[in-house]
Specification:
Elements lengths: L1 H11 L2 H9 L16 H19 L4 H10 L7 H21 L3 H24 L3 H19 L5 H9 L1 H19 L7 H21 L3 H23 L1 H23 L11
């Protein structure tokens, strides 16, 4: 049992930090910033814990969005262009991290985000009346992931694609923000999903600095945090208007049904 516990802790920290905490019981090791209590081992442990927490949260982060579309049988207000660009950025980032051999705790959430974003894109096509395109999209995206992560794409190509991630990500997210502005509401966007994405991207800035030191990943998550913040602020700004539009739609549907149910009685005319 002790061995299993040690193996788990060694996944979270290196041998030196394990000895420092569990053999020497030195909870405040000497490698600190100007005598502060935030030490190297603690920062490494915090980063790994945050990474695992983000991965755990990513399993369900877009499920509220998916269930909202299913419940309403509508993807109104969701920009397919934005979803596809977001999916492209997530997929490239996932492939770049995987091929580089970065720790799974530094990028594992993108695997779950990619799967859920692909489902949302498929649902937008499906409920938009393009069932055939939804099927073609699913097959095409699966093939793309295999090409990118199956060793068929050279690393230098992935590096170039990762360089385009920042403008692609910003364009995708901000196009959704423009759609929200044009509609005067956030439509079928899920507030839970928006705020979880913002929290995850902010935390990823720290884990990328700590675990990879890759400048491209840090810039990408910084840009993602900015774009997610814009949409989260829109979610708060349009909160009441979205509720009013939904109530208005339900009232209109109910009124229309009642009007259709009532048929005017034909007046009979007497003839002499």
């Amino acid at each position: 049992m002790v061995d299993y516990g040690k193996q788990f802790m060694l996944y979270l920290m290196d041998e030196k930090c394990y000895d420092n905490y569990f053999l020497e019981f030195n909870l405040l090791d000497g490698a600190c910033w100007h005598g502060a209590l935030v030490c190297d081992c603690f920062r490494a442990l915090l980063s790994k814990g945050l990474g695992l927490g983000i991965i755990a949260g990513s399993v369900l982060v877009k499920v509220p969005q998916i269930t909202k579309i299913l419940a309403n049988k509508s993807a109104r207000g969701i920009s397919l262009f934005s979803v596809c660009l977001d999916l492209f950025a997530i997929t490239i980032h996932m492939a770049y991290s995987f091929v580089n051999g970065f720790p799974f705790s530094a990028w594992g959430d993108t695997a779950f985000l990619a799967l859920q974003t692909a489902i949302i894109a498929m649902m937008v096509l499906f409920y938009g009346g393009s069932k055939v395109l939804a099927g073609v999209f699913t097959v095409g995206y699966t093939a793309l992931v295999y090409v990118l992560m199956g060793g068929l794409t050279p690393l230098n190509y992935l590096l170039i694609a990762q360089g385009f991630n920042v403008p692609v990500l910003l364009l995708g997210k901000l196009s959704q923000a423009f759609t929200n502005y044009r509609n005067g509401s956030t439509g079928q966007l899920s507030a839970v999903t928006c705020f979880m994405l913002l929290a995850g991207s902010l935390a990823r800035i720290f884990t990328s600095i700590q675990e990879t030191g890759d400048q491209m990943m840090i810039i990408t998550y910084g840009s993602s945090s900015f774009a997610n913040l814009v949409i989260a602020l829109q979610m708060l700004y349009y909160w009441n208007s979205s509720d009013k539009q939904q109530k208005k739609g339900k009232t209109a549907a109910a009124t229309g049904g009642a009007t259709a149910a009532k048929k005017p009685k034909a007046k009979s005319k007497k003839t002499d």
